[in-house]
Amino acid sequence: MAILNPNEIFYTAFEPRMTNRFILYMDGMPSFLVKGMSAVNLSQTAVALNHINVQRYVKGKTIWGTITFTMYEAITPAGSQTVMEWVRLHHESVTGRDGYSDFYKKDITFNGLGPVGDVVNEWIIKGAIITSANFGDYSWDDDGTAVNISLEVQPDYCILNY
C-alpha cells in the first residue's frame, strides 16, 4: 500500500520567473534601451579516451555561446551612438587602428526580477566583446514600428551569482 506524502498531494505555492522582468547593466549603455536578450548558454566538448576495445569520455573545453541583445533605437540618447562608441573601442574605422582588449572588453550584469521588482537572480557576463551589430531596418511601407538594434556579444565566461 502506498503512503501519501501531504507535501506531494496538496497545493504548493510557487512564483515562476517571467521573461519580461529583467534589467541589464552595461557600462555606457542606458538600461532602458535594452528591450530583450537571449539566454546565457554554453556547450562542453567531450574528449575520447581509447583503451583497448572501449572508449570512455572526459570533459573537454567549455565554450560560452554568444548572447544577442535587442535594443531600442532612441532619438536621444541614440542607441546606435552608444553601440558605436563601444565598437570604436574595438576598431576605429577612420584610422584603421584596433584597441586593446582591456578597453573594449566589458562586464555586463543581468538581473532577473521578481513581481515586486526584487532581484531574484543575477548573471555576470565577463569580458564581452561585440561580434556583430545590426542597426535596424527602415521601410517606407512600414506603419511606424520602432527601430531595433541587434547586438551580438561573445563573453569569456559567465557567473551565476544566485
Name some characteristics of this structure.
mainly beta; seven-stranded antiparallel sheet; 12% helix; 162 residues; extended; Pnp Oxidase, Chain A; two-stranded antiparallel sheet; 44% strand
Helix and strand arrangement:
Layout lengths: L5 H4 L12 E5 L7 E4 L4 E10 L2 E11 L2 E6 L6 H12 L10 H4 L1 E8 L5 E16 L13 E7 L2 E4 L2
The total of beta strands comes to 9
The overall average pLDDT, rounded, is 93
Low-confidence stretches: none
Number of domains: 1
Major beta-sheet overview: 7 strands, antiparallel
Structural class call reads mainly beta
CATH topology: Pnp Oxidase, Chain A
Distance between the termini: 41 Å
Question: What would CATH call the class?
Answer: Mainly Beta
Rounded radius of gyration (Å): 22 Å
The portion of residues forming beta strands comes to: 35-45%
Number of helices: 3
Overall 3D shape? extended
Give the H and E element order. HEEEEEHHEEEE
* CATH architecture classification name: Roll
Annotated CATH homologous superfamily: Hcp1-like
Q: Give the % helix.
A: 10-25%
